[in-house]
Structures are given as structure tokens and as C-alpha cells.
Amino acid sequence: xxxxxxxxxxxxxxxxxxxxxxxxxxxxxxxxxxxxxxxxxxxxxxxxxxxxxxxxxxxxxxxxxxxxxxxxxxxxxxxxxxxxxxxxxxxxxxxxxxxxxxxxxxxxxxxxxxxxxxxxxxxxxxxxxxxxxxxxxxxxxxxxxxxxxxxxxxxxxxxxxxxxxxxxxxxxxxxxxxxxxxxxxxxxxxxxxxxxxxxxxxxxxxxxxxxxxxxxxxxxxxxxxxxxxxxxxxxxxxxxxxxxxxxxxxxxxxxxxxxxxxxxxxxxxxxxxxxxxxxxxxxxxxxxxxxxxxxxxxxxxxxxxxxxxxxxxxxxxxxxxxxxxxxxxxxxxxxxxxxxxxxxxxxxxxxxxxxxxxxxxxxxxxxxxxxxxxxxxxxxxxxxxxxxxxxxxxxxxxxxxxxxxxxxxxxxxxxxxxxxxxxxxxxxxxxxxxxxxxxxxxxxxxxxxxxxxxxxxxxxxxxxxxxxxxxxxxxxxxxxxxxxxxxxxxxxxxxxxxxxxxxxxxx
Length: 507
Hints:
Blueprint: E1 23-24, E2 28-35, E3 38-46, E4 59-63, E5 66-72, H1 75-84, E6 98-100, H2 109-119, E7 124-131, H3 132-138, H4 142-155, E8 163-169, H5 172-181, E9 185-188, H6 203-211, H7 215-218, H8 222-229, E10 233-236, E11 239-242, H9 245-273, E12 279-283, H10 293-305, E13 312-314, H11 331-348, E14 352-355, H12 365-372, E15 376-379, H13 383-395, H14 397-414, H15 445-453, H16 455-460, H17 471-480, H18 482-506
Parallel strand pairs: 6-7, 6-15, 7-8, 8-9, 9-12, 12-13, 13-14, 14-15
Antiparallel strand pairs: 1-2, 2-3, 3-5, 4-5, 10-11
Helix pairs in contact: 1-4, 2-18, 5-9, 6-9, 9-10, 10-11, 11-12, 12-18, 13-14, 13-18
């Protein structure tokens, strides 16, 4: 069995291994090393115990009577590490307090691990988390995301459990790609199937749209649905939620097709996964109008009726959850609504509530943790990218200045698929700023959103020769400033995690 212990691999003269990464057992030692801003895998084993090396790529040599493999941080070696060190293989989350760390570059996991260790508390991390949309915009694969998280967690000495979230999936092909890569959590986004209904819709319009719902796919009839809800009151921890005929028709028009889509995706996932243990998150957060408590009850009941089992659900919440900035809205109103949604999740589940666009919502975290009693998942994405840019702004002003100008030029196009309200006329022009003023831009509301949503254009931009315009320079620079980047991430995410760790401690 592998364990953390004092190791002799660190004494090999030409190796520069990270002490926190070393894992030892009687016949083998594994570690991550660094040389010229490139990481490598190092494995040392006793002569006669070379079997451990056969799963890994690399060059094998002799050192002090032992066999030494030096290998790349590639996909085959990441898979072999997950097989050899079980804690590196992703698991399902269940009902514990959990936190998703998006990493658009594949360099952020060491900083995420440090933040978890610093914050304390029992928080289940999801290091590998990326949406299908972000894979397209970063030109990565699901396997790339998982492998980067594996090496990052191993390098920083993480030995606790971890998950892997295939985020905002819209097609069965998305499911298959992430399943093949080894992900365990599948977030289904049926936003395109959520219906919109005018508040002043005429009764005849309401009835016509209700009758036109896909009843065969719902495995129900209009009369059957009405009979199960009309006049019924649901007691949700002392809060009564009821449905009139009009309320039920409106809820069905809004969410019935989304329920059908989630059901199809879930059934495909279960069939494709076979004996593998996976879990589902349902996300209806990327829609125009909030999910009312009655609509939440409707969605949960209909999914359950159709045999769907889910671990977490992300409703569309009151107020604005914009990218990279704190909550915009009345915090008291949010807390009251969140409390009802949390109660519904307890009574009709239990399942977790999931807070999407959860990064930088510092004004809400205490209430989010308290009202759910810790049965909550928080999902972040672009805030780690912004900390990478903070690192560049501090250490490579010319590069940061160039990509910020580029981001401004692409913002109006790239913002189309995001909920943001930044204005270019409110974002400072970089030509007016001195180098020492650039890092402060990462604390500016409008600049944060401009840089947040243009990441795909920045990372995939090409120069006139067809070569990468920014990506290679960004990665080279950040690898050379790995400690600074990790420190920035640790500071930033400790602020995110502290309220949830404190809530776990009180529990």
C-alpha cells in the first residue's frame, strides 16, 4: 500500500523533486520533479520490483542499485498514476460540502490544493471541472482537463478524495466524451429546452401551449398531470407550496421539455456508464427568469417520477450572478429564496443545491452555507484565469497590456453567451496606465468581466504566421512564475472557502 513518508528519491543528485509530492512504499517511490520550467514524473524502485514501472512511459536507468524512471507528464502516465494511487482517481461527491475549481489553463490545481489545506475544514474538491463550451474555447479535451488535475494534485501532495465534473453538457456525445475520459459527475444543462411564458399570457394561449407539450415523452397525459398537482399543497418545512390550474400549466410550459431532455440524458448516461458509479447534477441556472419554489417542486417531482436520480440541482436564482464579480441584487431577498430552495432539496431529496457562477460571491457565502446546512456545491470557473492574469500583470506588464487590448477588441462578440454587464467605456484604457497600475485592474468590476469572457479568443488567437499569439507565451510565463501563481490562487480561494469550512466546523 502506498503512503506518505520520508523518501530517498529526494537524495538522487540530479533530481529536483517536489518534497510534498513524494509517495513511498517498501518497493517504490513516486514524485514530481521540475527542470527548466518543465515538470516530469520520477519513479524509483528496488531491483526485482520493476513491475511498477511497466505502466509508465519514460527512460529507465540505474542509480545506487535501484531502477529510476524519468517520464513525461502525459496522458498515459496520468492514467497509470490514477491506477497506482487510488486517491487520484475521481470519485462521486454525494451530499458533503463540495467545491468546484475551474482551470482553463491546466496549471491551477497546486494553488487550489494549497487553498484547501489553508482553509481547513472538510470540503470535497472537484479539481477537474470544465464545460463542453469551455473545451471548445480553450482547444482542450476532457482527458486534458482530468490529466492536468491529476498531476497538479499529485505534485502538491493531495491525498484526499476528489471529483471530476463534466460541466454544462447539452448532448449525449458530450456525455460519451467525458465518460471515456474518466469523469464521475455529469452536469446536464437543459437551458435550451426551458420555455418562456409572458406574465400576461391569455388563458387560451396558456391552454394551447400546455396541450402542445411532448406528453408521450413525459410519459403522462394532461389530465394525469393536473390530477397529481391541482389543489395539492406541499408542506416544505412549514412553508406551503400549492398549485392552481394556471400555476401548474405555467410551470409545465416552462420546465416540462427541460425535464424530458434531462431524462433522456440521464438514461443515456446510466446505460453508457454500465457498472461505473457516476452522479448527476441538473442545472437550470442559465435562463432568463428565476426558478420559483413551485417550479422547483415541479421539476423535482417530475424527474423523480421518470426515474431520474440526481445528486445536486442548480436553480436559476433571484438577482444577478455575473461572471467574476460579487452578487448583484438584494442579499436579503436572495437569502429568503435560497432558504426555501434548500428546504425543498431536503424534503424532496435529500440532494444538494448547487451555486453556479459561484466565484467571487463573497456577500452570499455565509448564507449559502448556513441555509443548506452544508449540503451544497459551489462551482467556479474563470476566477482562476483572472488570478493567472493578475500574475502576468505583476510580472510581465507588456504581455498583459497586449492581451488586455485584445480582450477589449473582442468583448462585444464574446460576451454574447454570458450574463455580464461590463461596459468598455467604463474599463480603463491600458494606454493611460503605468505598468505598476496594471495589477489593480484585476480588482476592477468592468475589467474583470471583459477579461473573464474573452479567454477563449485570447487562448486560441493566432498571429499572421498561424502561430499562437498568446497561449504559448502565457503558459511559459506562468510556468516560470508557478509559485507566484499558486500563492495568488491560495490567497484568493481561501476567501471563497473559509465560510464553508467554518460552517462545516460548526456542524
